[in-house]
Design brief:
Helix content: 10-25%
Radius of gyration: 22 Å
Number of helices: 5
Shape: elongated
Distance between the termini: 8 Å
């Protein structure tokens, strides 16, 4: 994939585990095998209450833009407020991007960590039938391979919809992201970014070049060791090419001010080309007004999308396109 991060991922094969004692499943190409339900018990592996239904829907839709099956891990949230954290950490099947998502919710868990894998389309269908004003209860009984989803009226506590969803014996490919040290960031206005991406599609661009421009300030002088940069977006279609500068919305985040301009005094900090198809998929389900883009030398593009809940977000880490591809 053209850089050290992506090349390392490309050599990793997905780990798929089988369940002991179960009858062999029919061989189907590229299809994970659904888990067989075990005898259930009264105790629960976890019981969660999703109060921010819109944020959970966004997490599933945004992650599901590149993942057909979503592997979710539930852990206790080790803060004063307690509760649980839902996490997604998966590399897409094409080894082009990684998805990292977090969502804070109420609930309890019997272990340090419980994971399950579900089909995105089935869960999306379930969520479309949950009224906006309802709460979503998610639980898994000890010894069960199914996850239960209940739509609960917040006023009356009555259950409106109850779904038992099959899970799959599928482990995700993943990679560590916390040690990636980015040099440039740009707080981008989402409608403007979607507009320029659509324009690139309309003139038949295959790739989009993202270029971070900055004023030459040494990295040591940048707040948080990350420069606020201007962003230039360019592309070449079958009969036309274009370039457009996007205004930054987040200069206050680093205490610096960079105006998006064609001023020749701005220097090119970093530039790379990315798959237009993947950018379209990622941005399509995003509804918020802003997204943070980060770039750095020999690093993939990081797109940070807030879910509007404390410590809750979706991140895409997209590998640049090499000239060999």
């Amino acid at each position: 994939l053209g850089h050290r991060w992506a090349r390392a991922l490309a050599t990793t094969e997905p780990a798929v585990t089988g369940r002991t004692g179960a009858a062999p499943a029919p061989a189907v190409a590229s299809e994970p095998v659904a888990k067989r339900t075990k005898t259930t018990a009264s105790a629960y592996e976890f019981e969660l209450q999703i109060q921010h239904l819109k944020a959970f829907r966004q997490l599933i839709e945004v992650c599901g833009s590149v993942l057909r099956h979503i592997f979710i891990t539930v852990t206790p949230r080790k803060t004063a407020g307690g509760g649980c954290m839902l996490s997604v950490d998966s590399i897409d099947p094409h080894h082009v991007c990684m998805v990292q998502a977090r969502l804070v919710c109420d609930g309890t868990i019997a272990k340090e960590s419980v994971s399950f894998c579900i089909e995105k389309e089935t869960l999306s269908t379930c969520l479309k039938n949950v009224p906006k004003q309802h709460l979503l209860h998610i639980s898994q009984k000890a010894g069960s391979a199914e996850v239960e989803f209940k739509s609960v009226d917040g006023m009356t506590s009555k259950v409106d919809l109850e779904v038992e969803m099959s899970t799959f014996d599928e482990e995700p490919e993943t990679s560590e992201l916390d040690d990636l040290d980015y040099e440039f960031l740009h707080e981008t206005h989402m409608p403007s970014l979607k507009e320029v991406i659509k324009f690139a599609k309309d003139i038949n661009c295959d790739l989009i070049k993202l270029t971070m421009l900055y004023d030459g300030t040494p990295l040591a002088a940048a707040a948080g060791k990350t420069r606020e940069a201007a962003l230039s977006v360019s592309g070449k279609g079958t009969a036309a090419k274009f370039s457009r500068n996007l205004t930054s919305c987040g200069a206050a985040a680093t205490g610096s001010t960079i105006t998006t301009t064609s001023d020749s005094t701005l220097k090119v900090g970093h530039s790379n080309e990315f798959s237009l198809d993947f950018l379209i998929k990622m941005l399509k389900a995003m509804e918020d007004q802003y997204i943070t883009l980060k770039m750095g030398n020999e690093l993939p593009l990081l797109m940070h999308y807030s879910l509007g809940v404390e410590d809750s977000y979706v991140r895409f880490v997209l590998a640049p396109q090499s000239h060999e591809e």
